């Protein structure tokens, strides 16, 4: 349930998509690592907030207690700590596992690919963070997925908002995950979850609502820096200062047009400590004057400065920021587009079929195809002793093989091969 | 335990190796599929003989009972049956999981890559089988791993041998796995396991011994076809007839020089029904006249005509033959070779570092690097506001970046960039 087999046409398309994403990661100087699908259970526990219950655990068959990785971020942090690495720019493309309710039509599976890029190390503020946003911008532009928006916020700003609204520290994380639902439900419902399930006072909820429903750019940052309450809060001020710097850098990259500072963005995971972001594709057809509707998140990430320290015996910290590209949702979109375009995706790359026009020529076919393979040419033949020529040519048409190399008695005698262009039905002797 | 993280230098090397293997699979017209790491437990049970105990099982967290795939063959057979596919040439490169005793120095892990190529369908005998052996020959030749030998046998011949030696059918499979140990232990020990653990009579064991210690080529096949006992056994005769045909095809491919018909080859898995084979690398330095010593299996496979039928509700059969390349062991060999050669494997592909010679030029760096990225150039910069030029050039040398693009006040004024060849210490203004 919630997993799927990928047939050849899928794999071909997906490999194209992954190649574009990996090309971007390499363009930004990232190195690849590979970590096991299996992690120690204790490595994963306490890192994913309410989502911890979605972790797949292995049966205790003796030895270590294991689980399947839930994302690529926690394994990366473990890798850095275990190997005492304090500076690294890495990417990883691999499958992760979540016992979620599958919604396969919307591209949500229990086994799915993640494509992660992360920058670890002590650096001047916001430079790696800005690069992560640049990467999201490049990938979504390269893939021509239509209009998109990258929402940005900062956990420190949110925490500051919660603090000045009178929420106790202990409720920050759970309030975060409620705020995070603002992209899926109206404020009224989010408010009632805050008051009902999370036990906030109606007054506090309303105060929060005044803040988290705002979004904008530099203007909003300036406005909040002047906010009488928020400007008194140390962490909020820090977050807002960094947000201003981030927008300056994004301006130099020329990409602020697609960035929105959005106070409703919270992201559910425990480990974020600073900037957080999420990219959404915008609905194509919209009425003039209407707010563009989001059709779903296709990338997300943020800063997690405390995670590596949780795995280091001495608690030694390594600040990190990273982004994860939601390849499955993008894949669904590309797949629909290919279907709509009528493009026929070939499952194989075979260049030539080695064929014979009559019986008793199997040896000639085997010798010729062997020569072609040894010369690096992608070649196939039918696994029949005496196939009919028509069947062989039909196979070319069915599978998109452009050429047939035909050897009959006459060709053998003359030491030539008849090369047939299958689509044009033209032949040359070579 | 038994798993490992792969650092960037590993991944670069491994990707090179996988690319060579996949290129060969594509050359032979295979299409790729991808199946989940998770399979239903019942799919895997009863397919791996004594090795079933090595399957990783997931905890029962509600829902289906799951396990991690043990190989790529059983998932492929399930895929064919589920999708009612009766003809397919496919490859798959993916990790598999075995709760084995890890021997990491010899490249044996609990999580490891398999590279599988399989041909499914009703075809004329031995044509797909011969292609599988050709593929092993091509890959081991392409990778220049030194001398190798591909041992070939047939389950039907082995079963015939067991039958004429008076072994009851019920003991065929367990006798098989004992015979299979002949490459690791001398006949005396194998014989005593047969008599002691497996309960064969000493006479039967000796009769088996007379057969399974033989290896050769066409001559041995002819000899066994004349064998008074074996020639009376129907399955053995079938197997020997096909073996003769196989050698004929391998002759046309020009590869019989590296193929040995070896009656001691048995392979442990339950599902094989016909031809089986295994490739071993031979020790490089050997004394003249000495038998070349095997240093381990690097590929193996065979025919499994009954497996797909086990997954089909109507028991509909699809004959299959396939090969699995033991990429981990080959990787260990290549890694040692790279180490010995002193080749420095770059972890990244960065072409240019964007650098500045003095302070207050961060904006210039950000603008230039953004232009480079947008032009598809692999570029990095240090994440510092005002890095020293020496530090920047040092970073190029440490990570193998060949060029530095330097912008200072003067360059900005003149609208140029100074491009420095890091190794030659030469600069041009462009």
UniProtKB/TrEMBL annotation, chains A, B:
Family under the similarity heading: Belongs to the class-II aminoacyl-tRNA synthetase family.
Name of protein: histidine--tRNA ligase
Gene Ontology process terms (BP): histidyl-tRNA aminoacylation; mitochondrial translation
Reactions mediated catalytically: tRNA(His) + L-histidine + ATP = L-histidyl-tRNA(His) + AMP + diphosphate + H(+)
Segments forming domain Aminoacyl-transfer RNA synthetases class-II family profile: 1-357
Domain of life: Eukaryota
EC number: 6.1.1.21
Source organism (scientific name): Brachypteracias leptosomus (short-legged ground-roller)
Gene, per the UniProt record: Hars_0
Pfam family, one: HGTP_anticodon
Lineage summary: Eukaryota, Metazoa, Chordata, Craniata, Vertebrata
């Amino acid at each position: 349930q919630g997993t799927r087999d990928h047939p050849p046409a899928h794999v071909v398309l997906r490999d194209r998509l992954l190649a574009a994403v990996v090309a971007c990661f390499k363009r930004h100087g990232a190195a690849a690592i590979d970590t096991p699908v299996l992690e120690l259970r204790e490595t994963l526990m306490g890192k994913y907030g309410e989502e911890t219950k979605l972790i797949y655990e292995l049966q205790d068959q003796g030895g270590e207690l294991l689980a399947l990785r839930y994302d690529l971020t926690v394994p990366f942090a473990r890798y850095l700590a275990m190997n005492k690495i304090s500076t690294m720019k890495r990417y990883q493309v691999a499958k992760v596992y979540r016992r979620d309710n599958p919604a396969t039509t919307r591209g949500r599976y229990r086994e799915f690919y993640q494509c992660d890029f992360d920058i670890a190390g002590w650096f001047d503020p916001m430079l790696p963070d800005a690069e992560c946003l640049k990467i999201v911008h490049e990938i979504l532009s390269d893939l021509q997925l239509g209009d998109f928006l990258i929402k940005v916020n900062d956990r420190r700003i949110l925490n500051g908002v919660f603090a000045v609204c009178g929420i106790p520290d202990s409720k920050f994380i759970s309030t975060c995950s409620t705020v995070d639902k603002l992209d899926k439900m109206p404020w009224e419902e989010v408010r009632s979850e805050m008051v009902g399930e999370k036990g906030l006072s109606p007054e506090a909820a309303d105060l929060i609502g005044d803040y988290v429903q705002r979004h904008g750019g530099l203007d909003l940052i300036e406005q909040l820096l002047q906010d009488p309450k928020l400007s008194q809060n140390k962490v909020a001020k820090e977050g807002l200062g960094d947000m201003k710097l981030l927008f300056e850098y994004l301006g130099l990259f020329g990409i602020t047009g697609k960035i929105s500072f959005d106070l409703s963005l919270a992201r559910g995971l425990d480990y974020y400590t600073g900037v957080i972001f999420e990219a959404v594709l915008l609905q194509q057809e919209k009425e003039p004057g209407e707010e563009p509707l989001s059709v779903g998140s296709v990338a997300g990430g943020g800063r997690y400065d405390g995670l590596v320290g949780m795995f280091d015996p001495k608690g030694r910290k390594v600040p990190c920021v990273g982004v994860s590209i939601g390849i499955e949702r993008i894949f669904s979109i590309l797949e629909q587009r290919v279907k709509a375009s009528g493009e026929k995706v070939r499952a194989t790359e075979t260049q030539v079929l080695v064929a014979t026009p009559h019986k008793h020529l199997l040896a000639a076919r085997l010798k010729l195809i062997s020569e072609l393979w040894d010369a690096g040419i992608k070649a196939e033949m039918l696994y029949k002793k005496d196939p009919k020529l028509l069947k062989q040519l039909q196979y070319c048409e069915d599978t998109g093989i452009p050429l047939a190399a035909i050897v009959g008695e006459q060709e053998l005698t003359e030491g030539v091969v008849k090369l047939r262009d299958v689509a044009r039905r033209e032949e040359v002797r070579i």
